[in-house]
Amino acid sequence: MRRRQLTLALGAPLLAGALAGLGACATPATDGAGLWFIFLESGRPTPDDRDAVMAMQRGHIDNFKRLFGEGKLLAAGPMADPARSKRGLVVVRAASHAELMGYFQPDAYVREGYMQVNAVPALARRAVYTEGIDATRVEEIRIVLIGRPAAAPDAATAHARQALLQGLVERGNVGAWYTLQTGPVAEVLLARGTDSASLEAALAPYAAPDRGITVQVWRQWISPGVVGPR
Known about the structure:
Blueprint: E1 34-42, H1 50-69, E2 73-80, E3 86-94, H2 97-103, H3 108-111, E4 115-126, E5 139-147, H4 155-170, E6 174-180, E7 185-191, H5 196-203, E8 215-222
Antiparallel strand pairs: 1-3, 1-4, 2-3, 2-8, 4-6, 5-7, 5-8, 6-7
């Protein structure tokens, strides 16, 4: 039986992605619901009332607990975007974008516009791990965001880029890999460890900023085990 756990990442104060819920699958749900990758992004400024903000934070986490218990939430965790635009990642199953947005109606952060939901259909090429998860803690890893090219590459180039990412997975550098179907981000990798320099060097052949293919490596927090053993 697949082990499914839930963790609160309280060490990143007041981030909307403060949940590190774990679990994922490589294919859509058997009920026909699709896989969606969500960036929770900054909205309007939160109130100065700290008690009100903390109440929203509790409601935010409680909503994630509910979604996880219902089998809709697959993964989540806060990230450190240098521009402070993207605040966290969430992966869910939903039959439509409208259904997905309904998941967040109990969450005042989203309902009141303090956080925005940027959701796109996704394919899990290497899903996060669901066994051996330490759901009592969170650890710092790295998330890699690869930009979408302005024009489709030729077949040989596309194959070489996919082979590069697959090699990182096979060598154990990357524990999870998602392809996003639309939007400026084409590929998302969850890397084991915190060695940003090595990741940037390994992915340098992939980058082509003049064609829109940027490679960004940010700090990410998630429960130990979600990207597999180091």
